Amino acid sequence: xxxxxxxxxxxxxxxxxxxxxxxxxxxxxxxxxxxxxxxxxxxxxxxxxxxxxxxxxxxxxxxxxxxxxxxxxxxxxxxxxxxxxxxxxxxxxxxxxxxxxxxxxxxxxxxxxxxxxxxxxxxxxxxxxxxxxxxxxxxxxxxxxxxxxxxxxxxxxxxxxxxxxxxxxxxxxxxxxxxxxxxxxxxxxxxxxxxxxxxxxxxxxxxx
Length: 208
Known about the structure:
CATH superfamily: Phosphoglycerate mutase-like
Number of domains: 1
Number of strands: 6
Shape: globular
CATH topology: Rossmann fold
């Protein structure tokens, strides 16, 4: 069934601001800037008449889409399928030189096709893409035609590779500002992307 899907990243958290790794194991809240970003997104897109809103199982995504649920009865679902990748022992830690080295080595491994590489006790790109593929397969057969999906930075990068049919090596080419929007259409069994990391809502409310 044809549909339009709005994929956004959650608003800013204090961990984002301080450079602390979150991932799926840190259930942080939005800070004041993040809440303002969420309000800006809502005010810009409140007339889109979403038929369904889906968020990850982590509260920073729930808080981002909360303004849409205040005054109207929009079906809302949570799913761990679109949680952030698990960054293993790095989660909850502020970036240090050794952590950067480990991260860069993992990204290098992904760039040469080793998608089983992960940080210590963390999740691989192959695992992440597997659960996102399951999510997309479930999403496209749903009856709703206009859907808002709120997720996370690395998850969004991987999701866009799957949506556009690109190799997972292309993940690093996708930017993901807090509440940045990727607007996609699903028609005749194929996805197309209309907007990439769109932040006009932040510009409109002078937040960037």
